[in-house]
Amino acid sequence: MAINSNSERPAITGVILAGGRGSRMGGQDKGLIVWHQQPLYHHVLQRLKPQVDTVWINANRNLAEYQQSGFPVITDTMPDFPGPLAGMLAALEQADTEWIAFSSCDTPQLPDNLVSHLWRNKNGAPAVWARSEQRDHPALALMHRSLAKQLRQYLERGDRRLLLFLQQAGGHGVLFSNAGTAFNNINHPEDLKN
Question: Where does the MobA-like NTP transferase domain start and stop, copy by copy (predicted)?
Fold first, then answer.
């Protein structure tokens, strides 16, 4: 299904996904881990904010700390931390914009043109995600809110694979050439040294 194929960009809500358990970081709330003197989510916020019309933060712990940012904080609508798709679902169900751009909280160097490049290359698809020469980065995505019902059903079936959902929804990856360190994730304590 082709959605809003014209090139004129509508209002887009940006959502920082910080609702995970942080299991690879010893249970720490990854968005609040300090990297280069700031919490990880703050680095993402600084890069995402100029690219979208409004920013939300999806978090399930330490809500007061995220609320200090001054940006709206939304929580998952599904129990038991079912992964980034639950944060995406919460945003898709609550957004008043047609399109929502997502970024994980642990990608502090995300491209300054993430949203515009995804938008220009969606080719009528209801979902697109970033791809580097090395791999897909499905948590860096642009999705149409009409996918909310399909996503809820997918999660209720017990499915959790983000890339598979985006593919089944008719989405495709968008290549970011020469991305360098733009897609580097902070997944383990040793990653904080870079």
Answer: 14-164
Please name each of the domains of the chain with its CATH number.
Answer: 12-193 (3.90.550.10)
d(CA 109, CA 97): 25
Q: Which of 54, 48, 62 shows the shortest CA–CA distance to 19?
A: 62
Q: Name the binding residues for GTP.
A: 17-19, 30, 58, 76, 106
pLDDT 10s digits, 18-53: 966 554 544 578 889 888 889 999 999 999 999 999
Q: What is residue 69's DSSP assignment?
A: T
Q: Which residues pair with 175 in a beta bridge?
A: 131
Residues in binding site: 17-19, 30, 58, 76, 106
Number of H helices, E strands in the chain: 6, 9
- Residues belonging to the binding site for Mg(2+) are 106
